[in-house]
Design goal:
Blueprint lengths: L1 E4 L6 E4 L3 E3 L2 E3 L5 H8 L10 E8 L3 E7 L6 E7 L1 E8 L10 E7 L5 E4 L3 E7 L3 E8 L8 E3 L20 H4 L4 H7 L5
Antiparallel strand pairs: 1-2, 2-10, 3-4, 5-12, 6-11, 6-13, 7-10, 7-12, 8-9, 8-11
Length: about 190
Amino acid sequence: MRIDTTELADVLVLTPQPFRDDRGLFTRTFDAGEFDAHLGVPGLAASFVQDSQSRSHRGVVRGMHGRGGRGEAKLVRCAHGAVHDVLVDIRPGSPSFGQRQAFRLDDTDFRHLYVPPGFLHGFQALTDIADVCYRIDRPHDPTEDLAVAYDDAELGIEWPQPVTRVSERDAGAGSWRELLGHLTPRS
């Protein structure tokens, strides 16, 4: 597995190295030992406690979601299809605070993202069906949910396809400016 840094502080792209032959392919999508060794944090991979999966149709946007309190670390990958995945750093004091970066995640190269606590996350399905898998480091607590509108003008996220559908929650999400008023530096 190749592990690369990104423009956003502490975010990593993990790219498996599949073995392909006339039968198809085999790949290890995650290796806890390599992950922990790269970060220099023994046992970090073992802290992931919940796996979830979503299925979306072409043009659907899910996001922009985050987590208050201690935040939430996650591994995100697209198991089927392709998505335009977007992260925004909401960690006051971070060298990349307020910056965003987009990534293509798909079922061709199997790249996935390590997203540390303190990021908004969202994606748009680029294919007729896109299955996204999330592995998070603590059980979901809806009382800590954060959300910013996917079309917030200040965030200025450019979705590559026309947006066909969003949830009621995402349609009614607050603004980037409102979120800034609630963020406090982490200790």
